[in-house]
């Protein structure tokens, strides 16, 4: 049996990771500025993280959530503490797409409505409801077609209110920063207006922080720069630093009836141990502050480089455009400079590094970028 083709693969196999570096089978070192799609938050193979998972696996790796599990309570407490959302409840699942599926279903249960308002260029996942709320026809099968999702332009207050005043919408779903489309941010003023409109028309506000959360922007959640408090927040990626975990943070105003949501693997013992370890490392090593400091430095320096255009983002969630092929630039950075980066479209490079990188690693990338350009 052969694997189903998913992505076009680079001819490199990382076999080891330490901090912000990965190594191939020949021991060649690569600077990781992509973190495996923003998943690696505290760095590869962090000693505390590894020790926590090994210790938990030696006791119990999995049992279903039909029984008590103090680790789930500890994971909820840790995420609530570091995020500032102690009064919210947490539903644990396995991925970002699954988190968004459950968030959309929960909003529909709560409001009794079916419609969802989403935004142009959005990406919320590849499962049925999540892909329907994703503005990319290339990944939507006929099965995913629905009249319950409408897309409006990002940062367009009038377009949002025109729809919400109908009273038909269960939820508005928006990314803290649009990642897959190339790092496009909702304006702080727009997010504030969006929350007000949702409250006015009885619509729940869901903020997808799967890529932009877990400290990446210099706040735990990107929407916290705007000072808003969504009804539902979805998380995944960096929350487990590579161990699959997703979550839905749910406002106290939303009733959590037994049987409304469910999962087999969600909130298992290993996943919770991973989430607790990640939160502990982030707090102990002040990684959120570091993301803000190093990210601001990178953004400022990128704007000085000839050939780099339209630098976007916050903290260590950065996108910038180049005149030629971003894919070719990224290939040369990888094979000539030994630096992993991400892409988004024909001209955009995406940086989503582990949150423990420093200015020295930023300077190495900036020097390499200038040389390749």
Strand order in space, largest sheet? 4-10-9-8-7-5-6
Sheet with the most strands, sense and barrel status: 7 strands, mixed
What is the helix fraction of residues, given as a range? 25-40%
List unreliable stretches of 5+ residues: none
Mean pLDDT: 96
Q: How many helical stretches?
A: 11
**Quaternary assembly:** single chain
Structure classification: alpha/beta
Beta-strand proportion: 15-25%
For the termini, the CA-CA separation is 42 Å
Structural notes for this entry:
This protein has 373 residues and is of the alpha/beta class. Helix content is 35%, strand content 18%. It has 11 helices and 15 strands. It has helices spanning 35-38, 47-59, 70-83, 96-111, 128-132, 157-164, 188-201, 269-284, 287-302, 326-337, 359-372; strands at 14-18, 21-24, 29-32, 89-93, 115-119, 149-152, 169-175, 204-208, 232-235, 246-250, 308-314, 317-322, 339-340, 342-343, 348-351. The strands form 3 sheets. Strands 4-10-9-8-7-5-6 form a 7-stranded mixed β-sheet, sandwiched between helices. Strands 1-2-3-13 form a 4-stranded mixed β-sheet. It is globular and about 55 Å long.
What key phrases describe this protein's structure?
373 residues, alpha/beta
Give a quick precis of the structure:
35% of the residues lie in helices and 18% in strands. By secondary structure, it is of the alpha/beta class.
Topology at a glance:
Elements: E1 14-18, E2 21-24, E3 29-32, H1 35-38, H2 47-59, H3 70-83, E4 89-93, H4 96-111, E5 115-119, H5 128-132, E6 149-152, H6 157-164, E7 169-175, H7 188-201, E8 204-208, E9 232-235, E10 246-250, H8 269-284, H9 287-302, E11 308-314, E12 317-322, H10 326-337, E13 339-340, E14 342-343, E15 348-351, H11 359-372
Parallel strand pairs: 3-13, 5-6, 5-7, 7-8, 8-9
Antiparallel strand pairs: 1-2, 2-3, 4-10, 9-10, 11-12, 12-15, 14-15
Helix pairs in contact: 2-8, 3-8, 6-7, 9-11
């Amino acid at each position: 049996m052969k694997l189903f083709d998913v992505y076009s693969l680079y001819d490199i196999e990382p076999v080891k990771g330490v901090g912000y570096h990965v190594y191939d089978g020949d021991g060649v070192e690569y600077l990781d500025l992509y973190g495996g799609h923003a998943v690696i938050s505290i760095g590869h193979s962090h000693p505390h993280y590894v020790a926590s998972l090994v210790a938990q696996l030696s006791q119990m790796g999995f049992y279903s959530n039909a029984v008590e599990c103090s680790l789930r309570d500890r994971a909820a407490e840790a995420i609530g503490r570091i995020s500032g959302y102690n009064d919210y409840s947490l539903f644990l699942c396995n991925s970002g797409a699954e988190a968004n599926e459950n968030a959309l279903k929960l909003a529909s249960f709560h409001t009794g409505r079916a419609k969802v308002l989403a935004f142009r260029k959005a990406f919320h996942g590849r499962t049925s409801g999540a892909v329907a709320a994703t503005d990319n026809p290339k990944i939507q099968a006929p099965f995913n077609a629905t009249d319950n999702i409408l897309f409006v332009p990002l940062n367009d207050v009038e377009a949002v209110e025109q729809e919400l005043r109908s009273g038909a919408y269960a939820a508005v779903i928006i990314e803290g920063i649009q990642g897959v489309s190339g790092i496009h941010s909702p304006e702080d003023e727009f997010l504030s207006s969006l929350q007000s409109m949702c409250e006015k028309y009885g619509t729940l506000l869901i903020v997808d922080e799967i890529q932009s959360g877990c400290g990446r922007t210099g706040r735990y959640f990107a929407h916290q720069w705007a000072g808003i408090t969504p009804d539902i927040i979805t998380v995944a990626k960096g929350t487990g630093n590579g161990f699959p975990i997703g979550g839905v943070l749910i406002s106290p105003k939303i009733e959590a009836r037994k049987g409304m949501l469910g999962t087999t693997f969600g909130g298992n013992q290993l996943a919770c141990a991973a989430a607790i370890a990640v939160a502990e490392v982030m707090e102990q090593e002040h990684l959120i502050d570091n993301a803000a400091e190093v990210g601001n430095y990178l953004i400022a320096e990128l704007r000085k480089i000839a050939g780099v255009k339209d630098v976007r983002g916050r903290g260590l969630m950065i996108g910038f455009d180049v005149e030629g092929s971003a894919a070719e630039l990224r290939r040369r950075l990888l094979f000539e400079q030994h630096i992993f980066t991400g892409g988004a479209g024909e001209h955009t490079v995406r940086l989503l590094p582990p949150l423990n990188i420093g200015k020295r690693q930023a300077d190495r990338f900036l020097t390499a970028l200038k040389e390749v350009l």
